Structures are given as structure tokens and as C-alpha cells.
Amino acid sequence: MSISETAHKNHEEMWPDYKSRAMQTDPELIELFDNFAFDEVISHGNLDTKTRVMMILGSTIACQAQGEYKMMVNAALNVGVTPVEVKEILYQSVPYVGIAKVVDFIYLTNEIFTERGIALPLEGQSATTPETRFEKGLEVQKAIFGDRIDKMYEESPANQLHIQKYLSANCFGDYYTRQGLDLKTRELLTFSIILSLGGCEPQLKGHVQGNLNVGNDKQVLLSTVTQLLPYVGYPRTLNAIRCINEVIPE
Fold it and tell me: Per the confidence metrics, is the pTM higher than 0.90?
């Protein structure tokens, strides 16, 4: 068995001249994985290289896979993802993964940026103020989810209404409104992160509909799930496909 020409080419695009230590110690596993992830899987779907790598990058944060994340940050920069986009992927993960699970990835990213001569801090991307964050966040929420947001406010018990307000002002006002990534990319990234967390299927179904509403159709979602499969495994992949099919039946 050997690594296919296609797998080698795709691997080289992401990590030129990379010498795998694991190839020396676990050659059979690397051959199996590389032929699957970088040939068979990449050959399926309609995601371009940059989008594919960005979604995998978000997934590795949710999976708490620091080693793979470091690999993917370098891959992302090698295939044209900008430093601002890398940081925005990190920031977008905070309201879904939690800062306790993201902070180490911020430090890892800063180390890689410094090694590559990327000056920090990067240019700010915030687009709201404390006075406008709720209004702007609610506007983005409704752009993605429509009238469902009004219904969520109407049906929320009084002692839980603050969570709805946090979603509008913080999750969407502080993060979704930021520059650096467009809305379609942010929503697809959120889908990738929630998928990779596992156990969040109700929220995943909500963001299947959200993606559909902003123009990411079923084929895009299935392509994204397929590209994440080698990194998250079959159970989370199959759960995600079930969610997609429940929201967007064949």
C-alpha cells in the first residue's frame, strides 16, 4: 500500500515539503488516513480548498485537538486564508465552545503568527458598540432565522428572557457582526463547530435552517460534513446528516 498521487498532491498544497514523523512510526495508519482524507474525501463535494480548510480549522477547536489545530493553522495560511480570517474563526468559536476551551488556541495561534512574522495585534474587526450591539445583533439574528426570533422572545419565560437577550447582544451582536468573515461563512463555520461538539443536535438543526436561509444549500452542508468526517468520526457525521435530512428532506 502507498499514498496515492492525488493524496500526495493535496497534502503538499496544504503543507509543502512536510516530513511526517508519524510516517516513520505508523506508516500503515498514515497511508490509510491520507488516502482517505486527502484523496477519497477531498474528491467529493463542492467546497473550495480555502473554505474546506477553514471549516476543519473551526472543527479542531471544538474537538480540542491542539496538535491538529496547529497543523491546520499553517495549512490555512498556506492556502490563502488571511491572518484576520484565522483569528475570526477563533473568535466565532467563543460563544459556541466557550472561552475556557478557546483561550489555549488563541495562544497557539499567536505563537504561529509570531514564527511566521505576522505582527500582533491584528487590525480590529469589531462593528458594534456597547450601545448598538443588541440592536445590530438582533438584526443579524432575524436576517438568519427570520420570524423565529420574535417567537423565541414571546415564548421565553420571564426568568429566562435574559438568555435570549444575551444571544442577540453577545452571540450575534458581539461576534456575528464582526468584519473579516462574511455572513455565509460565519454561519457555515457555526454549523461546523456545533457538529464537531456533538450532543448539540437541536442547535445543529437550527443552524441547518440558518445556513439554508443565508444561501448555503443542502449540497454545501453535506459537502462540509463529508470534509469533517476524517476529523470528527462517523457518529457525529451520521448525527449531522440526520439533522440535515430532518430539516431538508430528500
Answer: yes
Specify whether the CB–CB gap between 232 and 59 falls below 8 A. Answer: yes
Which long-range CB contacts under 8 A does 1-5 form with residues at least 24 apart? 1/28, 1/31, 1/32, 2/31, 3/30, 3/31, 3/34, 3/35, 4/35, 4/39
Where residue 211 falls (left for φ over 0; alpha for ψ -120 to 50; beta otherwise) is alpha
Q: How far is CA 3 from the centre of its chain?
A: 28
What b/e sequence results for 29-42 when a residue is b if at least 16 CB atoms lie within 10 Å of its CB, and e otherwise? ebbeebbebbbebb
Closest alpha carbon to 122 in 109, 103, 135: 109
Grid cell 496538535 in the structure block, residue: 67
pLDDT digits (tens, 9 = 90+) for 90-137: 999 999 999 999 999 999 999 999 999 999 999 999 999 999 999 999
In what helix (H) or strand (E) does residue 2 lie, and over which residues does it extend? none
Q: Residue 1 pLDDT > 80, yes or no?
A: no
